[in-house]
Amino acid sequence: MAEVVISTSGMTFSDVVAIARGNEKVTLSAQSVAAMQSSRDHVESLAASETPVYGISTGFGALANRHVSQELRTQLQRSLIRSHAAGVGDPVEREVVRALMALRLKTLASGKTGVRPVVAQTMADLLNAGITPLVREFGSLGCSGDLAPLAHCALVLMGEGEALDKNGVQRPVPELLAEAKISPVQLAEKEGLALINGTDGMLGMLVLAIEDLRMLVDSADVVAAMSVEGLLGTDRVFIPELHEPLRSHPGQATSAARMLATLKDSGIVASHLHNDDRVQDAYSLRCAPQVAGAVRDTIEYAATVALRELSAVIDNPVVLEDGRISSNGNFHGAPVAYVLDFLAIAVADLGSIAERRTDRALDKNRSAGLPPFLADDPGVDSGLMIAQYTQAALVSENKRLASPASVDSIPSSAMQEDHVSMGWSAARKLRKAVDNLSRIIAIELVAASRAIELRAPLTPSPVSAKIIGELRKSVAGPGPDRYLSPELVAATEFVMGGRVMSAIQ
Question: Could you mention a single GO BP entry for this protein (predicted)?
């Protein structure tokens, strides 16, 4: 198995995904170990001083005016982690926790946080052993970092808390550490704060969402083109002359090109190219590249923000190059929270236009001759009637999830932390919206595939034929009504697994 080397220069998208989803091993570079030791020397020098320094010899948040004597500082760090591990709710997904840990490790390895190398190495050992701290869903306000989620991870480094083994089985933490030959860490000055003061949870979820959405928007273009084909729409609105030269949004041009390529050599499209009395297709067909293209551009803007954050050092206070320990506000999650909310809006709209195409295919008055609800014997059979209900419910849910979390702020810590980002909440709802979008696209795929097959003996494009052939291995074609839910689940797995694109690549 390959390794991801954690250095002082940050991480890439592929690094995060490989660790979170691919379980790749991590190792600390010699440069990062040296940088951590150098900054640790500065911290220990300040710790020995009588001058109070935030995070080293004081309390935290609204309690920062309390100077803590040296004999109580180990207790201070331990108390910080225990008290901040206050999350509630369902466990967070394993991939999210691994991404969170990898990103915190990235910041520790920067040499700007003042932790001992052993702290970073222990976190790397947890990742490599497949030990996943149990992090609960609610607890972060997205400011002063994702405090509660990160504290649940730090607790496991101390040999406490809750965790799961590499098979996802919850077991006692001391047992898991002993099995992996990992010694619990006794945190020293500054280290507790350094383990929890980052935007790592919301950033990890942003990176994973971008990874998923780049695949889904490609799939959405192909499935939209299949709907155009099944509805006897035209491919002439997707020609390149209408996009890049006239409206230079790069995402739009990409989506139009993909749709045009999907429809290439379609016998169905060719059948009505010169004898169709319709002047223009409906917006949900004709404007598909404009909507999906805007989604593409939004994803890439979000990726720009994520890349900046991947090279950032998020901690408070930080150790500067000259050894000064300086307080700052870089833990505020606003930059990440905004793009998480922006993506949720784009996801909702992409699902909305997909549902409109499905509804059109099921309506005999707008489907250009298809049977009502694509049913085998309309009246006896209901066909895909309720599949569209399900799709509409998902679209409605995504519209609710598009309401931004980042416009809210609830002051905390006795008004010391009087403005927060709610970035963690924005990330949690985006994950749900992305899952819903996969199901929405899957239902459109089921409807579009059935519509195309009902156009026989007219032949679909080679791309459509290939996708339908792959889909039919798990989802049956037109016929009498049958138990539909398992087919929609299978279609969702087809889409989420990237098989729309892999079928034609």
Answer: L-histidine catabolic process to glutamate and formate
